[in-house]
C-alpha cells in the first residue's frame, strides 16, 4: 500500500497534463492517503454526475498562487473576488482551495492565521436543548427556535412539486446558510458571556428516526454543540437523563415530577418534597450545570443530585 509520498511520485507530471499545479496533485495524494488510513479502505472515485455527485475540490499551496489586489492568479488565470472592498484578503493568507457548493458555484477559500477569539473569563451556564425553544439557559434566558425550514416550507414545497431541482437546491442552500449563521452568532455570544458551558447529550441521531425528524434536523443540535465545543473556554457534555424530572433545589425525584410521555406537555411543576416551583426547561438546564460541575449523585436509584 503506497503512502502519500509514493503516490505523489507515481503521479509526477500529471499536473501539466490536467492544467493544474503539481502541488495540487500532491495535496490530493496526501488527502487520499489520510482518508484511506482513517477509514481503512480506499475512497471511492468522485461522482461527477447523478444523485451521488460529489462537490469539486481543487487545493493549492501558497507558492502556486498569487494575490493581486481583488483577484487571485492561479496557473496564469485570474479569478476576481467580489466584496473584497468590505473584507480585504488577509496579508498572511497561506494555502487554500477552490471549492464547489451544492448549486455548482465555485468559491476560493484561503487559510490565514487570525487572533484568538475573545472568550469570557468567568461565568458558567447549563444549556437544555429543545425544539419549541432551541436552548434554555440555567439562568432563565430562553433562545427561541427560528425554525428556518418552516419559514421557507411553502416555497420549498412549490419548487419540489414543480420538479425544479435547481430552485429546490437554492432554497435548501438558503435554509442551511440561515441556520449556520444563526448557530454561529448564538455560539459566539454564549462563548463571550460564559467561560464554562455545559450541554446535555440529547441523541439527535436517534430522535431523527422518529416522526420528529424534520424538526430535529431543522434545530441543528449537533452543529450548535460542535460550535460551542471549539469556541468556548471550557465545554462539557453531560448525560441529561432525568434532568427534567429531578428537582434542582433538593436533588430528589419527587412524586409530583412530570413522568413519561404523558408528562411532556407539563411545562411547569412544583416539587412535592421541598415545595420549589420549576420551569421544566430551566430546571433541566440547572441540573445539567450541576452535573457538569461534578456534583455527585447520592444514589443511582433516586438519581439524587444534592451534594
Description:
The N and C termini lie far apart (56 Å). The chain is elongated, with a radius of gyration of 25 Å. The chain is an alpha+beta fold and 307 residues long. A hairpin with a 5-residue loop joins strand 5 and strand 6. A 5-stranded mixed beta sheet has the order 9-8-7-10-11. Strands 1-5-6 form a 3-stranded antiparallel beta sheet. A 3-stranded antiparallel beta sheet has the order 2-3-4, with no helix packed on it. It folds into 3 domains: 43 residues; 58 residues, no CATH class; 115 residues, no CATH class.
Number of domains: 3
- pLDDT < 50 stretches: 296-307
- Strand numbers in spatial order across the main sheet: 9-8-7-10-11
- Average pLDDT, all residues: 84
Terminal Cα span: 56 Å
Overall geometry: elongated
Number of DSSP strand runs: 13
- Protein structure class: alpha+beta
What order do the helices and strands follow?
A: HHHEEEEEEEEEHHHEHHHEEEH
Oligomer: single chain
Strand content: 15-25%
Specify Rg, calculated over alpha carbons.
25 Å
Number of helices: 10
Roughly how much helix do the residues carry, as a percent range?
A: 25-40%
Largest sheet, strands/sense/barrel: 5 strands, mixed
In short, what is this structure?
By secondary structure, the protein is of the alpha+beta class. Helix content is 35%, strand content 18%.
What distinguishing features does this structure have?
alpha+beta, 10 helices, 5-stranded mixed β-sheet, 307 residues, 3 domains
